[in-house]
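Severity: low
Component: inverse-folding endpoint
Summary: output formatting inconsistent between runs
Steps to reproduce: submit the following structure tokens with default settings.
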């Protein structure tokens, strides 16, 4: 029987996404990833290199997916709020992405796939400036960072949510309330910048 390399890689990437987003780079265990994928751990080193490299590949893959899945469309403040809404929803469906980004910030000194991410960020900034022609480059960058910080933070900072709201439950009503607050803040911030 032929070895299905692509399937094996996919199994390892899926297992690693869960492991790294749950335990971070330092806490993740290659043995657990291999066991979850049902693959010999030597395949990890063969396909992806060291654990640090593997973390970078997993994060870069997740970042590429969100860049493609959530474009900025339309014009005006409404386009920015719509983009933030869709980013929030994407992160709600894929909380592992925000967790991976937070672990990266805690455990690495250099961003993963910096050149690729910078190019993606530049495209988003350009698209924000097309949607809001009076927006400066610096303000577009701040706006983008604010949107991503607010949407990512909701997925990761559960303890803070409990302190301020008394709950860590993430039912539809709580998600809707938090999203409404995030979108109101982004709308206000956007209007103040233009």
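Observed output (run 2 of 3):
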């Amino acid at each position: 029987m032929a070895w299905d390399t692509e399937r094996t890689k996919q199994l390892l990437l899926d297992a690693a996404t869960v492991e790294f987003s749950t335990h971070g780079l330092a806490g993740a265990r290659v043995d657990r990833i291999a066991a979850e994928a049902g693959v010999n751990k030597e395949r990890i080193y063969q396909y992806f290199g060291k654990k640090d490299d593997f973390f970078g590949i997993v994060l870069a893959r997740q970042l590429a997916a969100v860049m493609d899945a959530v474009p900025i469309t339309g014009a005006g403040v409404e386009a920015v709020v719509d983009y933030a809404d869709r980013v929030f929803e994407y992160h709600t469906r894929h909380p592992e992405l925000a967790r991976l980004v937070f672990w990266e910030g805690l455990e690495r000194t250099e961003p993963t796939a910096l050149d690729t991410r910078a190019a993606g960020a530049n495209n988003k900034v350009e698209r924000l400036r097309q949607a809001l022609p009076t927006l400066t480059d610096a303000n577009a960058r701040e706006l983008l960072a604010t949107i991503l910080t607010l949407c990512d933070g909701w997925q990761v900072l559960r303890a803070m949510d409990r302190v301020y709201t008394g709950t860590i439950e993430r039912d539809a009503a709580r998600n809707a309330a938090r999203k409404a607050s995030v979108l109101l803040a982004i709308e206000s911030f956007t209007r103040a910048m233009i």
